Amino acid sequence: IMETNVLFVNTHEDKEDVAQMFSKYYLTALPVVGKENRLVGIITVDDALDIMEEEASEDIAKMAAITPSDKPYLKTGVFEIWKNRIPWLLLLMISGTFTGIVISRFESALALIPVLTAYIPMMMDTGGNSGSQASVTIIRGLSLNELELKDVFRVMWKEFRVSILCGAALSLANFAKLMFFDRRFINPDITMPVAATICMAMFCTVVIAKLVGCTLPMLAKRAHLDPAVMASPFITTIVDALSLLVYFLFAKALLGVEIEENLAFDVT
User: Which of 4, 40, 77, 226 has minimal Cβ neighbours within 10 Å of its Cβ?
Assistant: First the structure.
């Protein structure tokens, strides 16, 4: 009596793929074969659990813009923690310069309508959170092999529809807050055109953020990079600059403010 349909793995198989086989087929042990399909050993379920824990810890570290470390936190030295964190912080700090460039370009709009300044943090945070939601969902799908690169357009279409609903709900709620609370208790300069500018910019920001958040991890996978790298920090940095650009373009279109066309920095 011979079983011909045997589940097995090769010695060159990726350990994360092997661990997923235990979850998929409810296995307790898995044979390992060499190049000639001869048995060289086995992997047990406790080995798979260790691999899953290791990979999950690595993904969490990358999603937080930290270089992964195998050591427990309390046994890791201060200098080593600094070394794992500072390269990402420097990179994100430099990339965050684009946000400052956008703000400097549209200084005239802020000078003419100062109330716009107060809602910049809300616009950036909403865009960053929206992009992070999409990216985390897609990264999980890629890690569990629920999504493949060929699904990118299906993913974009679904996230686009989700972003329409999310953007509409947030914009309507924000418009009501602006007109009935902020206008009365915080800033009387909030007019109907100003509120419309803020809410329409927020709607477009949510749509853009979710599309960016769902596509970047898949592009990273296509480039043979870890999709977890394209998580919250990078998504937020990119979306921040895009959300401000959309915000000020709506201010120009709806409020008629003049915007400086050239980037100029007065060194004096």
Answer: 4
